[in-house]
Amino acid sequence: MKKISILTLLLICIPQKSEAQNSQSNFDGYYAKVFGLYDVGFYFPQPNTDFPIRETNSFLAFGAEGGVYKGSFSVGVSVSHGYEFQESDKELRSNELDHISYWKISGSLRKRFFGTKTSSKVRLHLGGSTGGGYILYQAKEGTGETRFNPETGRDEYQTRDRNVSAAFAKAGIYFELGVKTKSNSAIILNYHLIDASLSTESFGFNLAKTGLIIQF
User: Fold this and answer.
1) 162-216 per-position pLDDT tens digit
2) How far apart are CA 126 and CA 108, in angstroms?
3) Which of 24, 57, 143, 173 measures 20 to 30 Å from 149, CA to CA?
4) How many CB atoms sit inside 10 A of residue 46's CB?
5) CA atoms of 194 and 191, how far apart (whole Å)
6) Contact partners, residue 45, CB within 8 Å, separation at least 6
7) Residues near 182 by Cβ (< 8 Å), separated by ≥ 6?
């Protein structure tokens, strides 16, 4: 994770001659984006457990983002909601958690490493991104208590609802393909190859983050 973050930051700081030459007014403006992604998380244990990973879970998430772009840089803020990809049927013992869904707000800084000229009708971009934010999980927590279920004929562990919040940092690589509609606007299909993240609650990554961007 540290290596990925350091590499992304270094690449963002590297000046790109071709981008500087192509930076014109039609690369300055605002953008709006909707996206979906597949999110995988590995969650840290409770203080009274020894196993390094308490839980692995995956989510489908959808969100929206808005921001500004100038030359090869763009900055945006997004809000997304994710829900458990496959419902877990495991029994939760005392203090064990099952993360059901989340709300996430994050900021992102992106740098285009390679891209087509501003005069090109078709836009093709490759770059890196970094950022961070806040996430609020909705989870089930085991109480350590059991109750007899007459339908199954056995004792079952009881759960309660719990909210878990965390701050996180992220870094990744993105790919964009789109079409310029006017001199200062474009419709772009955005695809993140991978984003890695580290938070106070978990570490993980997301794949297949696909979005539709409107630049204006």
Assistant:
1) 899 999 999 999 888 888 787 678 888 888 888 899 998 899 998 888 999 998 8
2) 16
3) 57
4) 13
5) 9
6) 51, 52, 53, 54
7) none
